[in-house]
Amino acid sequence: MSLHRALGRLFSSLIIGSVVAFSSFSLIELFHAFVWMREIVLEKNEYAILAIIPLALIASYFIEIEISSIKRHIGGTELVIYSYIKHGGRISLRDTVSRATASALTIGMGGSAGMEAPSFLLGGGVSSAMWKLLAWTGIDRRTALLSGAAAGLTLIIGTPIASAAYACEVLYRKGGEWRSFIDALIASLTSFAIAKYLLHISWIPRVWNMSFPGLSYFFHAILLSLISSFVALLFIASMRSGRIISEVLSRELKGRYRYVYLLLSALSGALIGLGFIFFPEAIGEGKKAIEEAILGVSSFSAPPFYLAIMKIIFVTLTLNFGGSGGLFVPQVFIGSMVGLSYASFFNLPSSLSIIVGISSLLSACSKTPIAAALFGFELGGPIAGGFALLSSSISYGVTYFTSIYSVQPRDRKDERTLSQAFRH
Predict the structure, then answer these.
(1) How high is the mean pLDDT of the chain?
(2) What's the domain count of the chain?
(3) Cα gap 178→160, rounded to integer Å
């Protein structure tokens, strides 16, 4: 590679990281505005949540189906995967903005999902549009897409190395697009620096002060990885079942019968609203519960393992019946609750067990073992990173190619998965 081309790629990645950081920050502010509106209403009547969430799911459904050019209920991460493989990295700004807005509305009003997917999509969409607008020659459009997606993810989770790895690895269930890793890492680090030092965004706390727990913990790490893998398979099965039911209903209940589907969306929203009253930690993003668990200051409304199961149910209802949002943060929530439950039962270091649980869930659900291990390293340092690598490898092997993302191909040769997932 010539020096001119290398400098061009570096400059492009820096620009992408900077622009995406401010774009995703605007999305976060929109999300906070919806949260503020929800809190204003709930101050007057806490049971209004039983109406707020159903209305949010219905509104999100209409935004995705009526405004977006892709008339299909699909998450931001899956749309990035589809655009990278099928459209050479092209995503329209219409799809980007409409779906990101729908996600902010869903989660801000109380739906159970993560803000990382809309930010992942927004970053990818903005960088794809910039590539076309500026006619970049030093970087191809697919690499620009992944760089922007990584930068958007970093703004939400605050782990730039893991974010860059995730953007490259989540494209396939086996392998990844590692030739774009350096570009994605530069964009991700740029976004991280802007978010930390200019926008003053805070993330899940780091716990790098861990001491080695002893050789016996290797046994616990393996057992916890197996338990987390089982929970991950349960989460995947729940999401698949909900997706099948939703797709059948949306296909069969078209036209004048669409109101029946909307009624089911409203019913799902009401059930989530009940969860908001009885299990508040499992609603919304759940970041506060994750932070409290890692810091060891948690006082939850229910045992952590129960909250993990409730999170699976609420995310399934949210994302399959009208709502929009991501699955990365829910995986982190579920993994942290499983890890905390295990640590409490065996009287083990909670922070380390939580990171092991998180790494296992991410690897098993998203098929991203390298990103999951790096995420554990960035959260807990070298000791946690070592056990995260062990747990992510085990959970990836145990769950084989079962993925929570329906459009994620097995490898570069497997385009049938994408064709089936986007079949109308």
Answers:
(1) 88
(2) 2
(3) 15
